[in-house]
Design brief:
Helix content is 0%, strand content 54%. With 112 residues, the chain is mainly beta. Strands 1, 2, 3, 4, 5, 6, 7 and 8 form an eight-stranded mixed β-sheet that branches.
Length: 112
């Protein structure tokens, strides 16, 4: 049985990013949680995409499929955080996300 190929920066097709800050506290609206979303497609099934945080920026990573795949346009989404996180008292106005096409500066918008 072969081992899984290593994760690498996403090569997804037509990657789009969104970033939101959501406040959960009426008396402290500046305390918020940062949320990221990425959508894209690949020409085959079996990929997994996910975010990694690295030194103040984020990377969109992919785990390529193993074994037999179907070669048809398949759509994917990734979100961050993947589990509970604490709020941040100062959120950035923009985040930098790196994928195989380069760096992308994404505006952090209020959650509405």
């Amino acid at each position: 049985m072969s081992s899984a190929p290593p994760s690498e920066l996403s090569h997804g097709i037509e990657i789009e990013y969104k970033a939101f800050a959501r406040s959960f506290f009426q008396n402290a609206p500046e305390a918020a949680v940062l949320y990221l979303v990425a959508t894209c497609s690949y020409g085959s099934t079996g990929f997994t995409i996910f975010f990694e945080r690295d030194s103040g920026q984020f990377k969109l990573m992919e785990q390529p499929p193993t074994g037999i795949v179907n070669f048809l346009q398949t759509f994917y989404a990734a979100s961050w955080p993947t589990q509970g996180v604490s709020f941040e008292s100062e959120l950035p106005t923009h985040v930098t996300i790196l994928d195989a096409q380069g760096e992308h500066k994404v505006e952090v918008k209020p959650w509405r």
